[in-house]
Specification:
The protein is α/β, with parallel strands linked by helices and 774 residues long. The strands form three sheets. The chain has a six-stranded mixed beta sheet, with helices on both faces. Helix 3 runs antiparallel to helix 4 (72-88), helix 10 (187-210) packs antiparallel against helix 11 and helix 11 (214-230) runs antiparallel to helix 12.
């Protein structure tokens, strides 16, 4: 965010207090989208007229409405514009208050985007402004809210001492406001502050609980309940009841179940979805500790159904439900409960649902990915989601505990659910980009050919769970290993390969990982075709380079492929058909001397030798425009170029090509999702193309996932920066073998031929096939 700089006039007839209250009232009525449009229009007009104060109010109001709608990029733009307007209205008495509000909204947006460091800096800047916003004195309500936001942010990163300090400051600030003379003279102001006090006490109780200060949490929750009841704030009463239930569970109080049930009823009445989720999750955890496993599993099921009903990234409402340790921990708890009851199929279903939920979280709330005939469905989904977000923005209580009605939410949810039925009927794969749509264990078994085994891994804090599945059998193998230890092993193994460490060291590490992750499963694997569903750090592991104690690389024993989730298998058989054109190969695009790939040109010409009629584009011809123009009809697509991966915005990860004809030279993941491909194979012989972002629960968003959705059943990718010459040699062998084999077997043969000449995995193990195992 920018800092303040100059000065300009302010319209003196502007009533900032009344204007702000009007904005809040309209948002509570579910009019957040209209407020956003209106205030953006007013901000533009005020800026043109040179009315900096009105522009500041309007931009701040727009940032507030956008935050309630989860339009996070818009929040940041409007907040920055508000700071700039405040810079021009430096002498206006309300400037500090509105700039502090705007910066707080920006901080909350940054936290939701996943930039906690930037969020903290923005909130601290807001706090500094708010401390002197009222004629050199703190603006009590604003400062209290900022302290509360800082407390929640600190709690989420594990800084419990800092969180407690901020939360206690928020309570003290609000209490001092209630004691001053102005509150005594203005009952409405006192009531507003008492609502805010209840909110601050709820946050304080939440943070005490997270810091394991259970008795303090109980006292703060009781105070919050009393204040909320006194001013008629039912949302905060329910939140306080929820906290008291969590405290009772920690104390093993015999009234715990009754307290949870009472809080659940209240959260249902007030339609607080994230609170309901945390309550069911907390109840499940308590029931499990009491040995009531079937009841615990039922509570976990309800929590999962609730979290799947809300699309999107972390919201402020979720931040305030700190007992909800995280969506993925909730899924993993349900998996453990299901397996303890020997319900293997349900455990598998939870694992698949966790991957689907994580994928939706990475896509975010305002992404419409579609192609061809599904574009209209995607556009309609965005419209319905915007309507639902606006309704929920009004129903969710603000800092003062005020909220609108729930009727609009119910109607919007009903219409969205009906729409999803239409999408499922038109395209199950398109539905999977909008909601959790996993397959069952039985469905996966029916999709597997005879002689094919699926290995679905789940990495948890203290163990790795593996489902070993074929057409007629399913087993679960649980391997005791701490996640942090596994991360270290995989990282050290990859480093040894990348550094071309001595063969003995690489083989030792390869054997250790084989014994941990593969050896316990071998007895259950029937046949040599193996489909791996990696999880967490295992996305980075070259399984082909694991080595048995007998000295055999895994690629010598099994024909390997991976998929981001087992659910993807359902959509692969219909892909890779109806391509009307020849193969297309693009290599060594002109990106500057430092990015030149000398052997890439030879590589794509070798593709043309192996696939008669192939069209080859190198150097200045290897453009993004050609890739998009020829991709939809290509029978095979081959890219020998560089890739860049954006961990903060996975959809911005891209293959680098030549710009021109209206294209910027970055073929991004979000663009690939919108392409309509029919190629039977895509090869990404590029640097690090397989390394998309690892999400918390695990739908790897990278170029391979995008190409699979776009229409190809098989994608060859790389796991590290490959040697230019070694890539050329391996790819030539791959295409020779492809003439009489499927892609998985062709890659296996090429890798085995390469390792026979150069056994070090650096030269052959980076390549892997994602998609159809045939």
């Amino acid at each position: 965010m920018r800092e303040a700089r100059a000065a300009s006039p302010v319209a003196r007839d502007t009533d900032p207090v009344a204007t702000w209250e009007t904005v809040q009232t309209r948002v509570r009525r579910g009019e957040a989208a209209a407020v956003l449009a209106d205030t953006q229009r007013l901000a533009a007009a005020a800026t043109t007229a040179g009315d900096a104060g009105s522009a500041l109010i309007a931009h701040t109001a727009a940032a507030y409405a956008a935050l309630r709608l989860s339009r996070l990029d818009t929040v940041l733009r409007e907040a920055e514009a508000a700071v700039a307007a405040g810079d021009r209205a430096r002498d206006w008495p309300f400037t500090g208050t509105f700039v502090a509000r705007a910066r707080r909204f920006a901080g909350l947006a940054l936290a939701q985007i996943g930039r906690p460091g930037d969020a903290e800096r923005e909130l601290l800047a807001a706090l500094a402004v708010g401390q002197v916003a009222s004629l050199g004195q703190p603006h009590l309500g604003t400062v209290s809210s900022i302290n509360g936001s800082l407390a929640l942010l600190a709690a989420r990163r594990g800084d419990h001492d800092g969180a407690v300090r901020y939360a206690e400051d928020a309570v003290r600030m609000t209490e001092s406001g209630m004691r001053d003379g102005a509150s005594a003279r203005h009952p409405q102001r006192r009531m507003r502050l008492q609502r805010q006090l209840a909110s601050a006490q709820v946050d304080l109780a939440t943070i005490y609980f997270g810091a394991r200060r259970v008795d303090d949490a109980g006292r703060a929750a009781a105070d919050a309940f009393a204040n909320a009841r006194a001013v008629g704030a039912p949302d905060f009463q329910v939140k306080a009841r929820a906290l008291l239930a969590h405290v009772a569970a920690r104390r093993h109080d015999p009234r715990t179940v009754a307290l949870y049930e009472e809080a659940i009823a209240g959260a249902r009445r007030t339609n607080q979805v994230w609170l309901l989720t945390s309550l069911h999750a907390g109840l499940a955890q308590f029931q499990a500790t009491q040995g009531h496993t079937p009841q615990a599993l039922d509570s976990a099921r309800q929590a999962i159904e609730l979290t799947e009903s809300v699309r999107g990234q972390l919201q402020e409402a979720e931040m305030r439900s700190s007992f909800f340790e995280g969506k993925q921990e909730l899924y993993q708890s349900a998996i453990r409960l299901a397996l303890s009851l020997n319900q293997l199929a349900e455990g598998f279903a939870f694992a698949e649902r966790s991957r689907a939920r994580a994928f939706l979280d990475l896509l975010g709330t305002h992404t419409a990915l579609s192609k061809g005939r599904t574009e209209a469905l995607a556009a309609e989904e965005l419209r319905l989601r915007a309507r639902l977000a606006a309704a929920r923005a009004g129903a969710e209580p603000d800092d003062e505990g005020e909220r609108g009605g729930d009727a609009g939410v119910a109607a919007a949810e009903r219409d969205y659910a009906e729409f999803l039925k239409t999408v499922r009927a038109a395209s199950g794969e398109q539905a999977s980009l909008m909601s959790v749509e996993p397959v069952t264990l039985a469905e996966v078994q029916a999709l597997l050919d005879e002689g094919t085994t699926l290995l679905e891994y789940l990495v948890t804090r203290g163990e790795v769970v593996v489902w070993v599945v074929d057409r007629t059998h399913a087993e679960v193998v649980r391997v005791r290993v701490r996640r942090d230890a596994l991360v270290t092993e995989v990282r050290d193994f990859r480093r040894a390969i990348a550094d071309r460490a001595p063969a003995a060291e690489v083989e030792r590490r390869a054997t250790a990982l084989h014994q941990r992750l593969v050896a316990p499963l071998r007895a259950h694997v029937r046949g040599e075709r193996v489909v791996i569903v990696p999880h967490d750090v295992l996305h980075y592991l070259p399984f082909a380079a694991l080595r048995s104690p007998e000295g055999r690389w895994l690629v010598e024993d099994w024909r390997l492929s991976t998929v981001p989730s087992a659910s993807v298998l359902k959509y692969l058989p219909s892909k890779g058909t109806a391509a009307s054109g020849p193969a297309v190969a693009l290599g060594n695009p002109e990106l500057g001397p430092e990015l030149a790939l000398r052997f890439a040109e030879r590589e794509v010409r070798a593709v043309a030798d192996a696939l008669p009629g192939a069209r080859v584009y190198v150097r200045g011809q290897a453009t993004e425009h050609e890739a998009k123009a020829l991709g939809p009809t290509a029978s095979v697509l081959h890219f020998a170029t560089h890739a860049v991966l954006d961990e903060k915005d996975p959809l911005a990860s891209a293959l680098l090509l030549v710009s021109g004809d209206g294209e910027d030279g970055r073929l991004e993941v979000r663009e690939l999702f919108r392409m309509d491909l029919h190629a039977r194979l895509v090869v990404l012989s590029a640097c690090e193309t397989g390394l998309g972002q690892l999400s918390r629960g695990d739908e790897l968003v990278g170029l391979q996932r995008a190409f699979l959705y776009a229409g190809t059943p098989a994608v060859v990718t790389t796991l590290w920066k490959v040697d230019d010459r070694a890539s050329f040699v391996l790819m030539r062998r791959f295409y020779d073998a492809l003439a009489s084999n499927g892609p998985a077997e062709a890659l296996r043969r090429a890798q085995r031929a390469s390792l026979a000449e150069e056994p070090h995995p650096f030269y052959w193990a980076a390549f892997g096939l994602a998609g159809d195992p045939r």
